């Protein structure tokens, strides 16, 4: 049995993780902690893998503390930047298990979203234009989503590798309506009651359009990905920091 502790256990995602861990045949819940609880209660003596689902403002601090305690961590909280990822790598190198410590961070745990992201990087080199639209419930605290930023960055890298120039856009003054620009790709965020988590990538050439869309209608859709990551960290995942569920899929 894989002993799993959950940080953020009372949150919208954390509560689903608790249920998923309790419901799986090969995992058992070790500790369920939330805001204000003492993270030092989690140690290798009682936990094999920690799942951290909190908010961007505290996630980095939590992860650094857990690394210092020598436990492997699956992170579902979004809002990660290259600067924050560098701090995690530094913490692993300075921690008690520099050669065996595992930290996994996923912009998205939905298999559909991971595949959409992967397919988008494959399509990017064939189209002149691209835009990303992400749509979520209005209780989400960050915009654009970490998934959309990750998608846009992957598309931009694929376009650069293919030798494509900037996405054409003759807009003169947009008043902010053109969305956030991530590595030259416009990303638009929609917040609407009734939505859960959705992403649409629009590619265009003269006379044609390709739309890749992923929809997660319920937070339960993320749980197979979370459990996959937990099992990989408890098994054959490489040491160090891994980013993106695609690393654990046969793509």
Automatic annotation (TrEMBL):
Residues annotated as domain Dihydrodipicolinate reductase N-terminal: 2-109
Compartment list: Cytoplasm
Binding site for NAD(+): 8-13, 34, 76-78, 106-109
One GO cellular component, as annotated: cytosol
Pathway: Amino-acid biosynthesis; L-lysine biosynthesis via DAP pathway; (S)-tetrahydrodipicolinate from L-aspartate: step 4/4
Dihydrodipicolinate reductase C-terminal domain location: 114-248
GO aspect biological process, one term: diaminopimelate biosynthetic process
Major place of residence: cytoplasm
A Pfam family per the record: DapB_N
Annotated EC: 1.17.1.8
Entry keyword Transmembrane helix: no
Reaction equation(s) it catalyzes: (S)-2,3,4,5-tetrahydrodipicolinate + NAD(+) + H2O = (2S,4S)-4-hydroxy-2,3,4,5-tetrahydrodipicolinate + NADH + H(+); (S)-2,3,4,5-tetrahydrodipicolinate + NADP(+) + H2O = (2S,4S)-4-hydroxy-2,3,4,5-tetrahydrodipicolinate + NADPH + H(+)
Keywords tagged on the record: Amino-acid biosynthesis, Cytoplasm, Diaminopimelate biosynthesis, Lysine biosynthesis, NAD, NADP, Oxidoreductase
Residues at the active site: 136 (proton donor/acceptor), 140 (proton donor)
Residues that hold (S)-2,3,4,5-tetrahydrodipicolinate according to the record: 137, 146-147
Gene3D superfamilies: Dihydrodipicolinate Reductase, domain 2, NAD(P)-binding Rossmann-like Domain
GO MF annotations in UniProt: 4-hydroxy-tetrahydrodipicolinate reductase; NAD binding; NADP binding; oxidoreductase activity, acting on CH or CH2 groups, NAD or NADP as acceptor
Subunit comment: Homotetramer.
Family under the similarity heading: Belongs to the DapB family.
Function per UniProt: Catalyzes the conversion of 4-hydroxy-tetrahydrodipicolinate (HTPA) to tetrahydrodipicolinate.
NCBIfam families in alphabetical order: dapB
Entry protein name: 4-hydroxy-tetrahydrodipicolinate reductase
């Amino acid at each position: 049995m894989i002993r799993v502790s959950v940080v953020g256990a009372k949150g919208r995602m954390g509560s689903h993780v608790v249920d998923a861990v309790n419901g799986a045949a090969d995992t058992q819940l070790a500790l369920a902690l939330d805001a204000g609880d003492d993270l030092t209660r989690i140690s290798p003596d009682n936990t094999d893998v920690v799942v951290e689902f909190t908010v961007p403002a505290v996630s980095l601090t939590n992860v650094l503390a857990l690394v210092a305690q020598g436990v492997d961590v699956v992170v579902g909280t979004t809002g990660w930047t290259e600067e924050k990822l560098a701090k995690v790598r530094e913490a692993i190198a300075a921690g008690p298990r520099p050669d065996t410590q595992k930290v996994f961070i996923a912009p998205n745990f939905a298999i559909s979203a991971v595949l959409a992201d992967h397919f988008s990087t494959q399509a990017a080199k064939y189209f002149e234009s691209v835009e990303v639209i992400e749509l979520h419930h209005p209780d989400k605290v960050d915009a654009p989503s970490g998934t959309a930023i990750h998608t846009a960055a992957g598309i931009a890298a694929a376009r650069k590798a293919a030798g494509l120039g900037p996405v054409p856009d003759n807009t003169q003054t947009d008043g902010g309506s053109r969305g956030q620009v991530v590595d030259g790709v416009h990303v638009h965020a929609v917040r609407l009651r009734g939505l859960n988590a959705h992403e649409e990538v629009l590619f265009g050439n003269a006379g044609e359009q390709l739309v890749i869309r992923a929809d997660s209608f319920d937070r339960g859709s993320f749980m197979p990905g979370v459990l996959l990551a937990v099992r990989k960290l408890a098994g054959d995942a490489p040491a160090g920091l891994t980013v993106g569920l695609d690393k654990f899929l046969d793509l």
